[in-house]
Design goal:
The protein has 483 residues and is mostly helical. Helix content is 64%, strand content 3%. The protein is built from 13 helices and four strands. The longest helix has 79 residues.
């Protein structure tokens, strides 16, 4: 089981398992050490807090009904709660958190996430750890150089290149273990996040799942580098598409197997080093034994000094053989215990992630096919969010419409002015043309009056002259035939 508590430094809400009560942990928000309380203070009045978060009027109505002492008025108060308002501003003010230093800004968090995009939460950079191992090996030999000759110094300076290779692999493995430990500690810190706060909703539905995703994506961590955050995001994103709790369970199971395989694979190179160091020791043993055997016939055995030199070469080869194996076995043993403990801790962490998803995610998923119980405060928040999202678009659309109407009215006014000017020009031209025609008509009438006056009492005779016929066989001039 899990319970919530507030960080004493930054006031953020954290969620922990009951088994961790009384232990110390590091807050993932402000990175300060906090002590997990032994009990959850919110358990004393869960109903009052839940109702006050949903709608303050619902919590005040029973108290007013009890004070009145009238059953009818109590039923009226309970059955007629005030309608939820769009501008939700009458909620109870949360307690002011203690003073704390300013946390990282959103831009700083974004830069941190961008810089940490290559972190997958379990694998380490082999080139970086190899460089650290090489530097540590050089420093180790430099520290042994000024030491007086002794057995420990001779193990690394008098036993050839094998011990140098063993020291390099050991320090490389130590660097891997250190970075794995850092990653595991960050994974444990992420387990304190309250990823699915009940203040958003007791049940995770298709209506509020986007709000949960927005809260998770606003966390000051890279989701890809935290097992728990990535697992919950995968489940919620799949729920937004499929809207089925059973399919989300299947996806989470698949993701759990992938995380376990990735965690086991991250220890592969470390296991290779733990296996390779004793192999190097056996190689040193073979080299030492070969040196010892080769020195048996290399000296003169006719005198005592030759025998002593042969025995010295044999013992030197045997010391190389046994010392390199001793150093390799000690190094392998020193690495095996912390590696196994670290791998076991990471497996336990993955089990905790599975338990968290089962207890806090799968149990609260509400399929879209089921009966949805929508609370009044959720309706008001949904309407307010929809208005906030669409208000700017509506205002912009209205502004564009007014601007378009203004442009159309100005264009129509310009067209009317142009038409009026053209009509006036046409009317003026028609008037001038009509005046000229009238003048010509007046002159024609005057001429006609003059002609009629001149013809007063006279007769006008119109004589028709016949046209001569053309002959077929005519000779002579045509002028004779003309009238």
């Amino acid at each position: 089981m899990y319970f919530n508590f507030a960080c004493t430094n930054c006031g953020k809400t954290l969620k922990v398992r009951e088994e961790l009560a009384g232990r110390r942990a590091k807050c993932p928000y402000c990175r300060s050490a906090v002590t997990v309380p032994a009990s959850n203070p919110a358990e004393d009045s869960p109903t009052i807090e839940t109702e006050s978060v949903g709608d303050p009027a619902m919590a005040v109505a029973p108290a007013a009904a009890r004070d009145a002492g009238d059953g009818a008025s109590a039923r009226t108060a309970l059955q007629s709660p005030p309608l939820p308002q769009i501008a939700v501003g009458s909620r109870a003010t949360p307690p002011t958190p203690p003073s704390r230093p300013r946390t990282a800004s959103r831009g700083d968090r974004g830069r941190k996430q961008i810089a940490d995009d290559s972190d997958d939460g379990t694998n380490v950079n082999n080139l970086l750890t190899a460089g650290i191992g090489a530097v540590a090996t050089v420093l180790f030999y430099l520290l042994l150089l000024p030491q007086p000759p002794n057995y420990f110094r001779d193990l690394f300076y008098e036993r050839g290149w094998v011990t140098v290779a063993e020291a390099f692999l050991m320090f490389w493995s130590v660097a891997i273990l250190y970075y794995k430990f850092i990653k595991l500690r960050r994974q444990r810190e992420a387990m304190l996040f309250d990823l699915l706060p009940e203040s958003v909703g007791h049940e995770i539905t298709v209506y509020n799942v986007e709000r949960f995703l927005a809260l998770i994506r606003d966390l000051p961590v890279n989701p890809a580098s935290r097992y728990l955050v990535q697992r919950v995001i995968r489940g919620l994103e799949h729920f937004t598409v499929r809207r089925s709790a059973s399919e989300v369970s299947t996806v989470l199971s698949s993701q759990s197997e992938l995380d376990n395989q990735a965690a086991a694979a991250s220890y592969s190179i470390l296991n290779v080093f733990i296996w390779a160091i004793p192999i190097l020791g056996f190689i040193g043993t073979v080299i030492g034994l070969g040196t010892a055997v080769g020195s048996l016939g290399g000296g003169d055995t006719s005198d005592i000094e030759g025998i002593k030199e042969s025995l010295g070469a044999i013992t030197g080869g045997l010391s190389t053989a046994f010392d390199t194996t001793l150093v390799a076995l000690m190094m392998s043993l020193m690495l095996k215990f912390p590696a196994s403990a670290l791998q076991k801790a990471e497996e336990d962490l993955l089990n905790w992630v599975d338990e968290y998803c089962n207890e806090n995610l799968l149990k609260r998923l509400k399929d879209a096919s089921g009966d949805l119980q929508i609370e009044p405060d959720q309706i008001s928040q949904t309407i307010k969010r929809a208005i906030d999202q669409n208000l700017a678009e509506v205002v912009q659309h209205a502004h564009d419409s007014v601007r378009l109407l203004t442009e159309q009215s100005e264009a129509a006014q310009r067209q009317l002015v142009q038409m009026a000017r053209e009509s006036a020009t046409t009317a003026t031209s028609a008037a001038i043309s009509l005046a000229e025609h009238l003048k010509l008509l007046r002159q024609a009438v005057s001429n006609m009056n003059d002609v009629l006056g001149a013809l007063d009492g006279k007769q006008v005779m119109i004589q028709t002259v016949p046209r001569p016929r053309r002959r077929w066989f005519s000779f002579g001039s045509r002028g004779d035939d003309s009238p």
